[in-house]
Amino acid sequence: MEYLPNIGFVIILILGIGYFAKNVKKLIRNIKLGQDVDVSDNKSQRWKNMVMVALGQSKMVRRPIAGILHIVVYIGFIIINIEVLEIIIDGIFGTHRIGLSVLPTSVYGFLIGAFEILAVLVFVSVTLFWIRRNIIRLQRFWKSEMTSWPKNDGNNILYFEMVLMTLFLVMNATDIHFQSINSGNLISQFISPWFGDSESLLHSIERGAWWLHIIGILIFLNYLYFSKHLHILLAFPNTYYASVKPKGTLNNLEAVTKEVMLMMDPNADPFAAPAEGETEEEPAKFGASDVHDLNRVQLLNAYTCTECGRCTSACPANLTGKKLSPRKIMMDTRDRLEEVGKNIDANNGEFKDDGKQLLNDYITPEEIWACTTCNACVEECPVSINPLSIIVEMRRYLVMEQSAAPTELNNMMTNIENNGAPWPYSQMDRLNWKNE
Amino acid sequence: MSETTLTVPTMAELMVQGKQPEVLFWVGSAGSYDDRAKKITKAFVKILNKVGVSFAVLGTEESCTGDAAKRAGNEFLFQMQAVTNIEILNAYEIKKIVTACPHSFNTLKNEYPSLGGVYEVYHHTEFLHQLIKDGRLKIASNTYKGKRITFHDPCYLGRANEVYEAPRHLLKELNVELVEMKRNKRSALCCGAGGAQMFKEPEKGDMDVNVLRTEDALKTKANIIATGCPYCNTMMTDGVKFKEKEDEVAVMDVAELIANTQEL
Ligand code: SF4
Ligand code: SF4
In Å, how far is B65's CA from the nearest CA of chain A? Predict the structure, then answer.
């Protein structure tokens, strides 16, 4: 019987980590539904971007208040989680504060003392975040796409952190042995008296807080997959895979290049049989109407989005009341990708046509056509997401597969085709300005 | 307006003389046909003529870069334009290009290389700044002394290619008070023309983007809104008119400001 807690602990741990692993596998499978894309170039620049943007949060601090608070929470959260290591070892082996027996008391005290201070800082920062979201009501958290789940999600995480930090401090405050050493209880020594001095009660509270703390952490881990908080993991690969070219660069579609070269080459025979060894390829679909047509980096982008709305708050279309919101583009992409993933799960690994698409069912052409391709969203995103690239892929689909551009744009394109200018002027008049 | 005649050789003419210019001036569609933009084109040519830069244009052999088509989603049309232009540029063995249009600048610099068109491409503000640094162009005039000028960053010059300083260096040479809008450089607000918006009506909303951006500029109390893009110029000019401020605030290209100090 005396091993019951250990066994229980191991089971909870395995369940918690196992379910998380299962969802990570699903996440990877879903991302791989996207088109392959070559990201093997510029390795050193990519590592540098990851270190600067994800680890160093260089883009977060462009908005100093949110940036600094976020860094506190981020550092605090990571460092305090070192404590989880001790909890896991204690839980499995039935030890109590194993750190005290392997580290000199002063070192252990220093570590826990630092954790306690960070816990308080995290608690304060998270409270300020909550106030910004719910009392001050910063505009970007109250746009039309931020209702129901996205809105609750933002707050849930804040509550989670508050509870976890509280449990950590309570656990320390009610630990009679730890308090008696009187090293590292920088904060908890002040909380300790609140709980009275009944030894058995203190012990029960300490055990309760200990168990809730580790269970809370496992729940948090598993909550990630369903939340915008996936960014704490995905920000790293996402900033690594983000484009390293100047922001103005739009990729040139290779499938189009092939056809254009064929058309421009006077010697090419368009009806020629494919050369030996070359198999007739399925004609490529131009642009994107659903998540399968997007590339893997774009799908990773969707899972990484923190729904912070920095993009939308800088978007000229959104600022002037148009329907377009780059954040919504990312959220819709993720929602549709999840829907497709669930469809695959329900149909034994095969996607069954559900009559829906990302375009029209989630994102409307009205949104797509409102974009000025100004790159403000790309510039703003603290985790290097590119909503613009998805918008352009959808325009490509609308124009090249559906011929569904707005009439004025069709006129502009006809002009370019006929006279090499977006207006109906003759190419022969191109140099007239010289003598006017 | 031109009392001084412009010297604008074409590549075809130079070819006949067996000459290769230092740089090709890519005029762009707006710079060739749009009445307002043509003035910018001429102002830039005047400076080139005065400094004695050996340059040429493609003239009737130039065609739209395809930027607007690409950003409207028509990759076919874009690549057709690109391949046609690259054929001509390569036939003339062009190495260095300067343009007064950030859209052409971006497309030539970033999107032509993988289709076989690899050139050194400069925006005219970068080129003019270089002329000053090399001591070839001197600005010693008080034409604009004491004026307040604000610079609107074109998206395809600024964020897209991170050229923020060249135009500002030029403006500082003018002896003016350079005032920044609240949203500037990488956080500058678009004028509303990019991504082929120039050629269509905006979607339904509360206001037009150019009006919002003009409000940003008017808040600086500047006498002149300077920019470096023919499309931004149109948008800001319209915005100023909408706000009925055209008598107090002028919208000018950096090249025009410089040309005016040269008493050309
Ligand atoms: S690129 Fe498009 S979506 Fe992004 S900020 Fe500009 S207008 Fe908005
Ligand atoms: S795309 Fe980036 S900036 Fe926009 S909401 Fe998502 S994380 Fe924030």
Answer: 8
Through-space distance between the first and last CA atoms of chain A, rounded to whole angstroms: 100
Q: Which of A260, A369, A380 sits opposite B203 (nearest CB)?
A: A369
ipTM: 0.94
Q: Is A430 on the interface with B (CB under 8 A)?
A: yes
Q: Is A154 in the pocket of ligand 1 (CB under 6 A)?
A: no
Domain boundaries, chain B: 11-131, 139-261
What residues of chain A score a pLDDT lower than 50? Answer: none
CB contact A61 to B (< 8 Å): no
Q: Cβ(A368) to ligand 1 under 6 A?
A: no
CATH domain B11-131 topology: Rossmann fold (3.40.50)
Q: How far apart are CA B132 and CA B135, in angstroms?
A: 5
Q: Do domains B11-131 and B139-261 have the same CATH topology?
A: yes
Length of chain A equals 436
In this structure, how many other beta carbons lie within 10 angstroms of the beta carbon of residue A45? 11
Q: Which whole-number Å values give the CA distances from B21 to A113, B57, B92, B135, B160, in the listed order?
A: 71, 10, 10, 20, 28
Does residue B1 surpass a pLDDT of 80?
A: no
- Tell me the pLDDT tens digit for each residue of A274-298: 555 555 556 678 999 999 999 999 9
Q: Do the chains contact at B77 and A413, CB–CB below 8 Å?
A: yes
Mutate to test the interface with B, among A244, A245, A372 (most CBs of B within 10 A): A372
With a 6 A CB cut-off, is A306 part of the ligand 2 pocket?
Answer: yes
CATH of span B139-261: 3.40.50
Tell how far the Cα of B65 is from the centroid of ligand 1, in angstroms.
Answer: 22
Pairing mode, if any, of strands B96-99 and B120-123? parallel
Residue of A nearest to B71 (CA): A392
Q: Which of B163, B175, B153 is nearest to B225 (CA)?
A: B153
Q: Is the CB of A60 under 6 A from ligand 2?
A: no
The 10s digit of each residue's pLDDT in B110-145 is 999 999 999 999 999 999 999 999 999 998 778 898
Q: Which of residues 387-406 of A touch B (CB under 8 A)?
A: 392, 394-400, 405-406
Q: CA-to-CA distance for A133 and A121, rounded, in angstroms?
A: 18
Amino acid at B106: N
Nearest bound ligand to the CA of residue A150: 2
